[in-house]
Amino acid sequence: MQFEMLASGYGLLEAPRVDDRERFYFSDIPNGGVYRRNPGGNVETLIPKRRGVGGMIFNQSGGLVLTGKGLIHWDEKTGKSRNLFAEWEGKPVSMNDLTTDDHGGVYTGTINFDPLSNNKPIPGSLFRIDPPGRAHKLWDGIEVSNGLGLSPDRKLLFHSDSTTGAVWAYDVAHDRGVKDRRIFAKMPEGWPDGLAVDVEGGVWVAAVRVGEVVHFSKDGTVKNRIKLPATMVTSLTFGGRDQMDLYVVTADNTDDPNCKGTIFRGRSEVPGLIVPKANF
Questions:
Q1: φ and ψ at 257, to 5 degrees?
Q2: Whole-model pTM?
Q3: What percent of the chain has pLDDT over 70?
């Protein structure tokens, strides 16, 4: 796969999404900010200083739903944010990546330590937050919660648990809870970070520390390992009119270290699965 470089000069990039106008959204974890790159190439700042946005999704009534220190809805018309889920059992929550289901609810995992530090991971939990903000704890003991995505038939939830070196799968129950967590696929090298699911049920995973995207078939076998000019490949998403544009974000650039965090775009051989909008 050949990649073109769309933008660079950032820190650790995360939370990539593409809207139906082919505008590309992303966050910069350490430096702060949520940004949007328009098809012409200009990048605008939507939220200037918010740090730690590891997950982002579009909202049905407009705006964005974002993780970080709590789950928030940001209204583009007013520029204001409101909390959707900020604490659990009296304690504040920090969340990383997310995905949504057909009911407009958000699946997201908590992070109980600074993942950019050398501190030992403190296990977190998997939650589902339903409109207008009802939280349900679904699973405990997740080492480092990262990418999430549902299968095309919505029967499986995929979940990157980074320091385990594996993408895990849960069965999704009729009540939208989860059960029977097990390893879906082990990473050939590195740790799994962000992920995206394609229309065939394949799972595409950003492999942090080894500079590649790993494409797993729906049975969990490695279909392809796609190298990029970066060591820290952090996340990815599909976009474009045919959902075959693959956007990949990084925290570095080995071709030119001065480029730092970079946005790349290539063409996939299979369309990505459209992620539903949240409904808050």
A1: -55, -25
A2: 0.96
A3: 99
